[in-house]
Amino acid sequence: MKQTLHPLMLAGTGSDVGKSVLAAAFCRIFLQDGYSPAPFKAQNMALNSFVTPEGLEIGRAQAVQAEAAGIPCHTDMNPLLLKPQSDHNSQVVLNGKPVGSRDAYDFWRRRHEAGVSMKGTDDIDYWKEVCAAFDRLNQQFNPIVMEGAGSISEINLRSTDIVNMPMARHADADVILVGDIDRGGVFAAVYGSIALQDEEDRQRIKGVIINKFRGDLRLFDDGRKMLEDICHVPVLGVIPYFKDIYVEEEDSVDLAAKSMQAERGRVNVAVVLLRHISNFTDFNVLERDPRVHLFYTSNTDDLLKSDIILLPGTKSTISDLYELRRNGAAQAIVRAYRQGTAVFGICGGYQMMGQEINDPLHLESDLERIPGLGLLPTTTTMTEEKTTRQVRFRLKDSRWMTGYEIHMGETVLTEDKDVAPLVEMEDGKVDGCCVNGKCMGTYVHGILDHTDFINMLLQPFAEKIKESAMPFDYHTFKQQQYDLLADHVRRHVDMTLLYQILKGHD
Description:
By secondary structure, this protein is α/β, with parallel strands linked by helices. The strands form six sheets. Strands 2-9-1-10-11-12 form a six-stranded parallel β-sheet, sandwiched between helices. Strands 15-13-16-18-26-25 form a six-stranded mixed β-sheet. Strands 19, 20, 21, 22, 23 and 24 form a six-stranded mixed β-sheet that branches. Helix 1 (19-32) packs parallel to helix 2 and helix 1 (19-32) packs across helix 15 (474-492).
């Protein structure tokens, strides 16, 4: 039996320094070394979520980390999830279930001013909830790989912080500070982050990892020693920047780096770039399928040039549909379909393709009704209850496949047209709508991870596909990438020293 290790927290000098990816890497490394790791992030803010086997919702990053650790994901890995609905408002998901929407000021500041420690305006004790989730997880796995949020040096938020150093104290975790050298100022960021902690938290920071280094690592040898001298903690590793290893992104911040234009001579698949796009990981398999060129756009000319248009999920369906009408993209999608382009919608995109969307309770906007694109004979009514579940489904005469649902609202057929549901569920229910091979939609996320459906989607454009192009095995690819990521991090981090720290020998 492996020795029990201290929980490991990867804290950051700022946002987007690589904490999520490093957490996935260490989950894989510990798994390879015979341990039973599990990820944990007390509070996450992201639109890119996932559904657990129990039908509950967590942040996508923790689902990815659980996959790297070789275990099913669970809400205890991310007990509190905030899903932004606007610049000032977020849906709050606690232990996998939505508990309402909260204004950011009410959620954080007013409770502090009222002196109610770690409680929201609805009297939910979030601190108690996230600690309980960690404690349950810590009884089952060894070690827990914890991820902080943003920067640990936001001293103005310290009294309401439930994800960084207060959680490290509760877990009695060894903290490794991650700094991003690619953005510049890493010496000040690391030193300042440590210096701004109180004495107890400073003692808890046991090492530093410098991430995203470009160039010859030997050029940082002096810098490494200088950093250790001024911070009085070891630099455990300097990790080179990589582009050839793929791990799913947590949020849409990296969409700008993706392809944004059509290409000649390939099946062009356009993902409509919505303002509130969510679960864009639905398109990861297609993005790597050699038979197609996938790109993101809201440009009307590029939509008209595409062979297939994909309407993705969104956290604000009505708002995004209104914007598509305002900027002309909605009209371009309808026109493209009439000219032979295939249109496929997932979740919110499926809702948009219908005749109308009704919001009688004003759950999403002040509008009670907005016309849809009119491509499917369906109508959607927004409801207070949220559907979250994992599903097994199949196309007609196909094998069973897996996916998940995360949506508000119910969609029904409005006309007795000669249309069919897109998929049959294992429980005997059906989902989605298929007018023909070029016009369909579904609530099932993950349907594009499966070769059977991709082949059906591409079939009308078979003449553009090279005979040598083969379908893409995404599951095998992801497992290979986790191993490559673990190898990359293992080569550049002093794992012997890290294990000494986690065993209490620092």
